[in-house]
Amino acid sequence: MANRQHGPMAVSSPSPNPTAALELRQIVLPGRTQPRLDGVSLRIEAGERVALLGPSGAGKSTLLAVANGLLTPAAGEVLWQGEPRARGARARRRQQARIGTLWQDLRLIEELTVQQNLNCGRLAQWGWPKALLNLLLPLDTAACRDALRQLDLDAELLEQPVSLLSGGQRQRVAIARLLRQNPTLLLADEPLASLDPRLAQELLELLLRQCQAPRALLLSLHRPDLLPGFDRVIGLRQGRLLFDLPAAQLQPQQLQELYAEAAPALAAQP
């Protein structure tokens, strides 16, 4: 794990060990008036569960998009399990298959059944012929049942269209799809933001339960009360790391500094 200073401005420094699930080195991504990310460095080891805190516009979604590979930084380096972005299409597809992302809008396909949505988590491994077959036949039923069981969902849901599910069921199906993908790095962009406190706590516990070594988790949050269960917490403000420390060592004054009234320029951030 990275060496850290513990205090209001503690920020981790990269370790030379190349086996981290994710490593960002001095990432810079320009914005309209100021950088969206400004010299961000962090490292997440296999099995670590890391919470990302910050006010709206701090750059949390941008950081996750860089960690996912959707955004390419203007400067800096992104390493997945010690490897930079693969160049060839096939190698990149294999690399991307190891990165699972849970977006706030879930990105389920309404017209498809639960089983077809779950199997979408396997598309990078399957290739096009089997991906097309997934639209016609119920594939890998036993594995899909197992994924639902791990999320406390009834296997009878497999044949239902996603459009008929409740909000809580949809959240769980989206997590089950990640289990079908079986990533080594799981990224989650404020997946609990629109949920009531009870459901948010339930789903967070499910996510944390699925993130054991070698799988690592980086999840953005707005609620510091949900930090129990995380190994580390990272504070991001105006595109810069404010702190990176064990979750149990986070102090109230650090949260106050993190969520202090944003400068006008912050409101203009995408």
Question: What does the model show?
Answer:
- The protein has a domain at 1-87 and 211-270: P-loop containing nucleotide triphosphate hydrolases (Rossmann fold).
- The chain has 10 helices and 9 strands.
- The chain has 270 residues and is an alpha/beta fold.
- The protein has helices at 60-68, 89-97, 114-119, 123-126, 128-133, 141-150, 167-181, 197-210, 252-258, 264-267; strands at 22-29, 37-44, 49-53, 75-80, 99-102, 185-189, 216-221, 232-237, 240-246.
- The longest helix is centred in the middle third of the chain and has 15 residues, at 167-181.
Strand order of the largest sheet: 5-6-7-3-8-9
Q: Report low-confidence residues grouped into runs of 5 or more.
A: 1-17, 263-270
Mean pLDDT: 87
- Helix tally? 10
- What is the CATH topology classification name of the domain at 1-87 and 211-270? Rossmann fold
> Main sheet, how many strands, which sense, barrel?
6 strands, mixed
Q: Assign the CATH class of the domain at 1-87 and 211-270.
A: Alpha Beta
Element string (H = helix, E = strand):
EEEHEHEHHHHHEHEEEHH
Distance between the termini: 31 Å
What value does the Rg take, in angstroms? 19 Å
The share of residues in extended strands comes to 15-25%
Within CATH, the superfamily of the domain at 1-87 and 211-270 carries the name P-loop containing nucleotide triphosphate hydrolases
The chain-level structural class is alpha/beta
Strand tally is 9
- What is the 3D form? globular
The CATH architecture of the domain at 1-87 and 211-270 is: 3-Layer(aba) Sandwich
Helix content: 25-40%
